Each structure stands twice: as structure tokens, then as C-alpha cells.
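User: Can you help me understand a structure? I only have the sequence.
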Amino acid sequence: MSWNVLTSKPSTPARERPAPLYRRGLLTVMCACVALVVGMVAAINLAVPMLAASALHPSASALIWIVDTYVICFACLVIPGGAAGDRFGRKGVLLIGLLLFAAGALLSAVAPNVAVLLAGRAITGVGAAAVLPNTLAILLHAVPADRKAATIATWASMTGIGGVAGNAGGGAVLTSGSWRWLFAAAVPLALLLAALAARIAPVSARHDRRLDPLGTILLVAASVALLVGIVEGPEAGWGSTVVITGFVSAAVLFTVWTLVELKVEHPLLDPRLLRIPALRSACLGMTTVFFGMFALFYVNASFLQYGKGFGVLQTGLGVIPLTLPIIVGARYVGGLSQRIGLDATIALAFLFVGGGLLGLSTTGAHTPYLGYAAWLVVTGIGVTLALPTLSGVIAGSLPASQAGVGTGLQATTREFGSALGVAVIGTILTARFVDALPSDIRAAHDPHTVAQALAATSPPRSADVITAFVSAADAGLQVIGVAVLILGALVVAQSLLSR
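Assistant: Let's start by predicting it. Here is the structure, written out as C-alpha cells:
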């Protein structure tokens, strides 16, 4: 198959082309599934202030884990989810995933403590990992060859739109005043989509591909160990035993995982695939884009509520300018790539994403919202350029028989980037917020979250707490913006050197 399905015609031999099984409404249902599982990644950020002030009394690190438990299960299991679809049937695995998603959301909604909430988030993440890769695999099997490029572009755009839809929809649900309704609302949505998918999704051929349970366990363990090191640093101390153990364990486990994957007959993800320069650079690029975008979602939810005094619905709607370029411009990205080249398109994408994040870091609590929205549009232009371009490169680098694994690879890079973005920005926020607090508040109450600080201080000192948080948010966005620009430069350089 041609290496870039966005800028060239499909070259799949006729005998490998799937039968034209496209059905009315299939694209809509599959995109709705994508929006649901991706939207949950974003929507939970809106609930962070509510959770921080709730009867659960989570610590600063627990808040990050409530967000990231779902994301890390999603990221690490999405390739096994795609492989399971290849082997056992993509439609069946998709339906099981939607049912698990509903069960996990229900458990989260009724959780009496943080431990049960984390268990519910993990189950929901497992379900999401089974859903996402099989949506695109089903679509690529069902649509005719001349629709594949447009289908990939639409599906890829939904991963961005889903994040914004999660913000807007989550904001509407959270106006009820309880974070529990956010999870409760996801249950009927997942069940409805399962019913629709059962009715209209076609059954695709199965491939005799063995699963890799050892590789899966090692990847999950390594990823969790890495996040432990990042998330626990501000509270436990960067030289603490738990943090050092986390980083060392991550390094060892990732190394063991690589060695295991090189030896097994059917690896979860063959590290040799990353020898393909286009695939390697596109994976890094996708990770970087979602690293920046979901770090922004995490900051945006608290910044608009604490810094600008927005209600939760206003906060959810406040990020909509980010999605306007995605809605309007996604269809034109393929033509732009043909006109100026892939490398130039990707370079522009990172310039807009990184520049937009740096611009957002200059908008303090007193900046008019229109100024904030303008920088969201700039960031959205970058996301619009990146998503279909990088998705097309990844999808076109693997044979049709590995469609599920290829889609899983895309999802892994996106969700792992999201998890890292939340972990890094959350860590920076906690550390810089504590440092920026007036010394008397810090000494008397030792707060690590805005909710803790506001609860412990008198109303006249609330302004000092908010000022400290806004300063920390600006610093976090600056770090993320610079990181996106540096990593983007590496992606483009790698692509140019591989020519």
C-alpha cells in the first residue's frame, strides 16, 4: 500500500480489497463511538475542581490519577484491542468494549471513595481501548477504495473534535452540580451506540493473529511506573524512593518489553516497525500533538473556572474556538499537503500548536476572553493540520491485514501523549502553585490544590490563591509549548533526513 493515503491513490491489489459493505449511518455511528471515548478523556478535566472540593478529598496526585488512570489503560491496551479485533472479529470486540465502557462509567458514578473511582476509570479505559481501534478497522473494511482517504481524514478529525465535544458536553452535564453525573450520563450513550453498532456494523474477516499477553502486561507496567515517577514528584519529592523507583522501573520494564517483543512470534507491537522512518516520525508527531492538546484541556478546565470565574458550562463551551479550524479546515488538509508537501504541512502544524500554547500562557486572569479564544484558534489550526496528515502516514505504512494493529498504534501514540501531557502539566501546576503561594499560607496550611488552599484561607486571601494558580498555569503552558516546538522540530528533521 502507498505510504501516505492522504496524498496518493490507494494501491491495494484488487484481491485484497474488502467487499463494498458500506451502510448508511455506519460512518456516523463509528465517529460517535470515537467522540464518546475520546470525549471522556477531556470531560473529566472539567470535573477536577468539583472532585478536589468533594467528600472524596483527593490529594493533588490523586486528582491526576483520576484523570490518567483511564488514559493510561486506554493507551496501553488499545493495540491489544486492535489485535483482538483482527483475531476474534472487529464488530464483536467493539460491542464488548462499549459494554465495558458503560460498566466502568456506572462504577465511577457510584464510587464511595477514590480507590473505587480509580477502578471504575480503569474498566472504562479497557472498554475504550477495545472500541477505538476497531471503529476505523470496521470503516476501512466497509468503504470502497475511493472513499478510504476521506474516511481516514474524517475519523482522524473526530479524535480532535471528540476532545472538544467532551468539554462542551461535560460542561452541560456538570451544571447539575455533581461530578457523578458526568459518568452516569456516559452509560446510556454507550449502550445506545452498542445497539446501533450491533444493527449496522458489518462483520469483517478474521486474521489468525495471536495475542501477546506478556508484552501487554510489560507495556502497562512500564507506563504506570513512568507516570508514578512524574505524578508523585511534587508531593513525595523528586529524590524520594517512590519517584526514583518509578523511573528506574520504567526504564527496566521498557527495555525488557522491547527484548520480549523482538523474540516473540506475534508481538504486541514489533519494535522493528519503528525502523520505517515515516512511521517513526509520525508516531512521535502524534504523541507530541496530543501531549500539547490534553495538557491544554487539563489547564483550561481549572483556569477558566478559577482564573476567570466561569461556570462549568461556560468553561466547557469556552474551548470551542479550538475546534472551529478542525470542523472547517480538515477537508482541505489533503490538498494542502499535495501542494506544499508533507514536511511543510507537519512543520506548520507544530508551529501553530506550540505557538498557540505559548500565546495562551500570556493571557492572564484579566485578559479578555476574546484574546484567549484567538490563541485557541491558532492552536486548533495546528491540530487540524497534524491529525489527518500524521494519521494518513501511520495508516499507510502497514498492510491491510494489520489494519487493527495499525489503528491501535495511532491510538496508542495519541493516548500515551495525552497521559503524559496531563501528568507533566499537573506536576508543573502542583509544584509552581505551591511555590507561588504566599509564605504564610504555605506554612500554615501546606495546601497542594487550589481547592485545599481556598478552603483553608479566609475570603480576603482568595485573590492570592487564584493569583498563584494563574502564575502556575502560565508556567505550565510555557513549558508545554516549548516542548511541542522542540519535539516538532525533531519530527520534521527526522522526516527530512530519511528522504
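Now, to help you interpret it: The chain is about 75% helix and 0% strand. Residues 462-497 form the longest helix (36 residues). Let me know which part you'd like to focus on.
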